[in-house]
Write a structure and sequence with these properties.
Blueprint lengths: L2 H6 L4 H13 L4 H8 L3 H13 L3 E6 L2 E6 L3 H28 L4 E6 H15 L3 E6 L11 H11 L4 E5 L3 H4 L2 H6 L3 E3 L8 E6 L2 E6 L11 E6 L1 H17 L4
Amino acid sequence: MYAELLREIGLSLNESKVYEALLQLGEASVQDIALKAKVHRRNVYDSLAKLAEKGLASEVFVKGEKHFKAINPRRLMELLKEKEGRLARVLPDMQMRFEGFEAEEEAYLYKGIEGFKNYFQDMLKTKETVYFIGAKAFWLDPRLKHYLPRFQRERKRLGIKFMHIFDHEVKEQKPDILKVVGKPYKFLPKGYSSPTAVDIFGDYVVTFVGVKPGQLEEEPVQFVMKSRRLADGYRKFWQFMWDNLAEE
């Protein structure tokens, strides 16, 4: 029931199973815990010791026999806060080391929906205007419905402006995106659409393939090129298109 979530927040597989068993059993012997958790008795002792170190389990004695019980699950939140605090203390040093080796010009891929979210984070990191060529409204992909509102709030808080040149089909097929991104925007003429799109922001040029109005590929891929010289050149291409497209 909870084992998968417990693993995600840092418990081992056996620790997760044992803690969940404790929640279901209350005070229990090692034998009963092993049966409930379906973990070998020897491994149960190990897991109980580690849970005790984390403040998630404690010993009790019932009629002279050692039993164990779970500590209040609120302790899990405290553990997460402790981890967050430790990370916050070293993050500036980690960031400095990362930036010290970050290449001025490089190319790489983002894959999957989580990779797509990295692309969003790159936008927020640059805090610069974003220019879109052949935009498809693929942000309306259902898999992003919970993430997009948070991104939009942060984007507006940072004052990041969007300048869209949409594919012509977006106007009829996905007009909802126009309310999401806001003006200014223009549209490519009919006959100039393709299953590709290019976004330019800061030092980044991000290219998409296999996209269509309102939808990403099942396993989306973004080709990321990081180069201020390249991005400046693409912004020139964008400006030429914008200057020669009709106002909406």
